[in-house]
């Protein structure tokens, strides 16, 4: 079943994940040449955006994620729906090649291996349309990774840590030889599949059908009374594997079948394990982070924030302008997820007022709870302020915002080059 991302997250609201109750089905909302698709990671680590949803047993890939021969993490629900533009998998195959592929995902708090089991279609799902590489985590995977509320992470493809052989799940068949199936428990993605009669020599293709596969127009091999057949798998890495076990008519719909062989990993993942940290640039020439998961401005009191290109640091790019910055007004520039203070060593930002002089209180913070404040004297020239996080934030373990307030008369404030540093 296709899952549907219910709504785009607005700036200051909680994210909405996917559900299985919408009416899209296989073949609906396909990607085409008009979709602007960003690149996804391959054998190295790259950025991925995460949401979460409640997964069904079957999913678009049409396999039961509770099958006993699957790795324990899959049976425990660590699966995901891949955004439709990327459903050819990390090797760029045909639609459906992503099914059963494994990804290592690293978030602020944890690293887990997760298997592709479902699809997040373009239709009705702006976040899954390809603007950024996107995974919709099953709720179990979201809980394990402490993510999925519209977050960023790092991901890379990895060989699935499977035990035993590639299996078939027989989804449907009839006495005339029709067969609908899915390949499961493969170490690397499957590029193509063929079959031949157990008593024959001619290979015929198994056709992709949505997220699964089927055999059509053969009323002999897998029919009642037929000889049964064996399979030949070609991996996305080019290995060709002829499996020895014969699938005959006695294996009914709903059954799993051991093919008797396993694909090998010929291209180990490049580089080391993925390590994600939030974007160090809070504001440069724009708010730091990826589309939909950026640092965000939240003013309070009478303060009103906007971006401008007038009078910014270095006389180039953009900066933040705070107007109507009355006494006791202030702002937070916040990130969606809290991160350990030890992630960075220092916070630096540049500040000035267009005229006169003023004083500003600045502090890193967590959900409004502030580290020790730094009082900054401001004038018409840019002032760079650097805050030592370990020294000023001894009372907090994590951060998710930069906070400032005005203790004095109303002013206009310009803010630029806000960044955390190692």
Which keywords apply here?
422 residues; mainly beta; Barwin-like endoglucanases; Immunoglobulin-like; Jelly Rolls; eight-stranded antiparallel sheet; six-stranded mixed beta barrel; 3 helices; disordered N terminus
Cα end-to-end separation: 45 Å
Report the C-alpha radius of gyration, rounded: 27 Å
Low-confidence segments, ≥5 residues, pLDDT <50?
A: 1-34
Largest sheet: 8 strands, antiparallel
Notes on the structure:
This protein has 422 residues and is mostly beta strands. It has helices at residues 72-75, 139-145, 389-392, and strands at residues 4-5, 18-19, 46-53, 79-83, 102-106, 111-120, 134-138, 149-158, 167-173, 179-184, 190-197, 204-209, 212-215, 229-235, 240-242, 256-258, 281-283, 289-290, 293-294, 296-300, 304-308, 319-325, 330-340, 346-352, 358-366, 369-370, 374-378, 383-388, 398-405, 411-421. A hairpin with a 6-residue loop joins strand 11 and strand 12 (204-209). The chain is elongated. It starts with a strand and ends with a strand.
Q: Which SSEs are present, and which pair or pack?
A:
Blueprint (H helix, E strand, L loop, with lengths): L3 E2 L12 E2 L26 E8 L18 H4 L3 E5 L18 E5 L4 E10 L13 E5 H7 L3 E10 L8 E7 L5 E6 L5 E8 L6 E6 L2 E4 L13 E7 L4 E3 L13 E3 L22 E3 L5 E2 L2 E2 L1 E5 L3 E5 L10 E7 L4 E11 L5 E7 L5 E9 L2 E2 L3 E5 L4 E6 H4 L5 E8 L5 E11 L1
Parallel strand pairs: 3-7, 4-6
Antiparallel strand pairs: 1-2, 3-8, 4-7, 5-6, 5-8, 9-10, 9-16, 10-13, 11-12, 11-14, 12-13, 14-15, 17-30, 18-19, 20-23, 21-22, 22-30, 23-29, 24-28, 24-30, 25-26, 25-27, 25-29
């Amino acid at each position: 079943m296709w899952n549907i991302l219910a709504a785009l997250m607005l700036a200051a609201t909680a994210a909405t994940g996917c559900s299985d109750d919408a009416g899209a089905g296989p073949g609906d909302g396909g990607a085409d040449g008009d979709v602007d698709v960003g690149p996804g990671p391959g054998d190295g680590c790259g950025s991925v955006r995460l949401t979460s949803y409640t997964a069904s047993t079957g999913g678009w890939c049409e396999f039961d994620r509770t099958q006993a021969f699957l790795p324990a993490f899959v049976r425990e629900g660590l699966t995901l729906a891949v955004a439709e533009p990327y459903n050819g998998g990390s090797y760029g195959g045909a639609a459906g090649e992503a099914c059963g592929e494994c990804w290592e995902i690293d978030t602020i708090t944890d690293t887990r291996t997760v298997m592709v089991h479902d699809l997040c279609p373009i239709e009705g799902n702006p976040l899954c349309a390809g603007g950024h590489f996107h995974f919709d985590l099953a709720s179990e995977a979201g809980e394990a990774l402490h993510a999925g509320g519209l977050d960023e992470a790092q991901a890379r493809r990895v060989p699935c840590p499977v035990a035993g052989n590639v299996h078939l799940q027989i989804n449907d068949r009839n006495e005339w030889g029709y067969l609908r199936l899915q390949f499961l428990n493969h170490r690397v993605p499957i590029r193509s599949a063929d079959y031949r009669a157990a008593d024959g020599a001619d290979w015929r293709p198994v056709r992709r059908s949505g997220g699964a596969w089927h055999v059509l127009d053969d009323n002999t091999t897998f029919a009642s009374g037929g000889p049964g057949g064996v399979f030949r798998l070609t991996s996305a890495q080019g290995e060709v594997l002829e499996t020895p076990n014969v699938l005959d008519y006695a294996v009914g719909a709903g059954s799993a079948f051991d093919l008797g062989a396993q694909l090998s990993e010929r291209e180990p993942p490049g580089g080391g394990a993925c390590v994600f940290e939030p974007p160090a640039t809070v504001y440069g020439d724009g708010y730091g982070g990826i589309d939909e998961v950026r640092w965000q401005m939240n003013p309070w009191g009478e303060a009103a924030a906007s971006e401008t290109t007038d009078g910014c640091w270095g006389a180039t790019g953009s900066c933040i302008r705070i107007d109507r910055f009355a006494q006791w007004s202030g702002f937070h520039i916040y990130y969606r997820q809290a991160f350990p203070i030890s992630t960075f060593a220092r916070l630096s930002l540049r500040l000035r007022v267009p005229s006169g002089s003023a004083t500003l209180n600045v502090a890193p913070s967590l959900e409004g709870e502030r580290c020790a404040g730094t009082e900054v004297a401001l004038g018409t020239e840019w002032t760079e302020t650097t805050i030592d996080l370990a020294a000023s934030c001894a009372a907090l373990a994590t951060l998710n915002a930069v906070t400032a307030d005005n203790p004095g008369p109303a002013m206009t404030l310009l803010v630029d080059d806000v960044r955390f540093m190692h």
